[in-house]
Every structure is written in structure tokens, then in C-alpha cells.
Amino acid sequence: MTRRELGRMAGIGLASQLLGQEQGRQIGYCMVGLGRISMQHFIPALKTTKYSKLTALVSGHRDKAEKMAAQYGLSVKNIYSYENYEAIADNKEIDAVYIALPNSMHAEYTIRAAKAGKHVLSEKPMSTSVADAVAMVDACKKANRKLMIAYRCQLEPANLRAIQLIHDGKLGKIQAIESANGFNIARNEWRYTRKLGGGGPLMDVGIYSLNACRFLLGEEPTEIRASAAVIDHDGRFDEVEENLSFTLKFPSGVIASCNTTYGCNMPGFYRVHGSRGWMHLEPAFGYQGMHLTGQIQGQPAIDEPITERDPAHFVREADHFAECILQNKEPAAPGEEGLRDMRLIEAIYKSCGLKLGVG
């Protein structure tokens, strides 16, 4: 077993039952950035969480923040701008911040939150450079605050079922993994600017495949090969790659082959091949509709759809981090997990002859 042991996974659910001992206290989240993922997914999730609640907002658009505050019954005194962000230190209703800003802003607002004495749940990728990722981890440790990276799939039932099959040896010796994730990006998106995105689809959706391969195997790759290309010369990919393929070789000998793109709709999936069978999860990285299929020698076919709907992933994620804060536990995906991915992303870009980040 590795750091991704099944015991830890089981503990995620079992330990949550103990939260009632904390006198019913809920962790107060401050939303930093009012974009799609926070407004359409994370904030709605807090309506149904047991151990989390929305207590404050940070936005550069006061009118948007006031409208959201009215909708969720927040006092206007709990609305902050990016300029007076440090004032959250004086608000005891705020226990943690959720960083839902463009990639290149994650580090700054994580570090400022830690200095203000708040725990941090940051969206992925955790930064746009290895140096920034290290600084985020160091700042939270220095402030004795927890840092979790929003790898929600590491808490999701279908993904946990897949890793259980591997760790129980049901598939035999794992031989290979295939994974892909991508979409046809619209114009005028910050995600394909180097200043805000730090890179192309690898930073946005390819990171799901990268993290999944590591999570499934419980190993760190020792060899990386990658290639990037631009096919659509329509102005969207003047700064970043459109398509990127990479292979990861792990100490066990398993080779993972992954593709990611901003040029077409590429359903997110992974397929694991073992000496006794295979399994396939598709969709593997979306917000709902996960469906695990497969075939193992001598056993009935695997056909296990997950019926939960959005925002279930975010409910689970918010409450898990709340549990970690209340019980002083290590998050399922701490800052070090995001840092490992950032080091690998840097190596993937280097293999392509590209540079990670805004510099």
C-alpha cells in the first residue's frame, strides 16, 4: 500500500461521522473569485453541506458580489475586494478560503490568506510554476494553516472503486493506462493566455489524466516523453499549445499514455489494462455521470454507473476539508500533492521544448 491506501479512503467517510462532536460547528468559507466554478458549482454545494457554510466573498466586481451576498443571506460587511483582501484576518466567521481565480493568481492569494491566518482550498493547477507551488506550501506551513488542492476526483466513489480494484489485485499486474481529456475552447478565454493560464490544455484538463495515473498506481513516474502541436492557427493558440500528448513510465514498468487538447471535444476517460482484465471509467473527470465498466477473468462484467449529480463532488470536497480543519487531519490532497504535479508538468513541457508559466 502507498500514501493512497484504502484505509485513508475509508477514513474519509468514517471520520466524517465524528464531526458532530465539534458541537455542530461549521467551517466558514470565503469565496475568492466569483467565476463559473465558484458560482455554478462550489457555492451551490454549500447549500447542502453538513460541515461547511458560505460566510464571505472576494471579488473585483462589487455589484456581482452584492447580488450573490443577497442571494445567500450574507452581510455586505463580509464582501471584500482584492485590494483589502488582508482584512479577512479580522473576520472570525472565515475559517478557510476557496481560491477560484485564474491559475497564475493562485499562489498570491494562497500566500496572502495564510498570512491572514486562514486555511486554503485552492483550485488546480495549484500554480503556474514550481517555485510558486513551493512558496504556497511553505507559507501555509509557516502559518500553521492547512492547504488542500481541489483534486475532487480523489474523493469520488467511481474513482475510489477503480483504485480499490487495482489495490485488491483484481486486474492482476497492471500493464498500461490510457487517458484523455479535452474540449474545443471558445474565443476570449483567459485559459489560453500565458499570463493567466500559464500554459494550454495540460494545465486545465490534461492535469486530470496526469493526476489520475499517479493516483491509480500509487507511484511517481521516472521517465517522461511528450510532444505538443498547434493545428488551428486561428489566434487562440498564439501563446500556448493546442494539443499535447505525453507518456509516463512508472517504476513498476507501467506506461501511461495521455492526450489533452483545446481543439476538439475529447471525453475525459481512463482505461486500465491488467493481466487478468481491464476497466474503463468514462466520464472520469466530470461533475456527474461517472460510469465504471470492465471485464475481469472469471467474474461478471463490471457495469457500475454513479447516479449522484452535481454539485455532489463539491459537497464532498468542502466537507472533507472542513473535517480536516475540525479534526486537525491531513487533507486527501495536500499542497505537496499539487507540487508533485507541478514538477511533472514542468518536465512534460520541457520534453516538448516549451516553458511552463508566465516568464
List the helices and strands and how they pair.
Elements: H1 6-16, E1 27-32, H2 36-45, E2 52-58, H3 62-72, E3 79-80, E4 96-99, H4 106-115, E5 119-122, H5 130-142, E6 147-149, H6 157-167, E7 174-182, H7 194-197, H8 201-217, E8 223-229, E9 243-249, E10 255-261, E11 266-274, E12 277-281, E13 291-296, E14 302-305, H9 312-327, H10 335-352
Parallel strand pairs: 1-2, 1-4, 2-3, 4-5, 5-6, 7-10
Antiparallel strand pairs: 7-11, 8-9, 9-10, 11-12, 12-13, 13-14
Helix pairs in contact: 4-5, 5-10
Q: Could you describe the 3D structure shown?
A:
With 359 residues, the chain is an alpha/beta fold. The protein is 34% helix and 22% strand. It has ten helices and 14 strands. The strands form two sheets. An eight-stranded mixed beta sheet has the order 8-9-10-7-11-12-13-14. Strands 3-2-1-4-5-6 form a six-stranded parallel beta sheet, sandwiched between helices. Strand 11 and strand 12 form a beta hairpin. The chain is globular and about 60 Å long. It starts with 5 loop residues before the first helix and ends in a 7-residue tail after the last helix. About 3% of the residues have low confidence.
Q: Could you give a quick summary of the protein structure above?
A:
The protein is an alpha/beta fold and 359 residues long. 34% of the residues lie in helices and 22% in strands. It has an eight-stranded mixed β-sheet. A six-stranded parallel β-sheet has the order 3-2-1-4-5-6, sandwiched between helices.
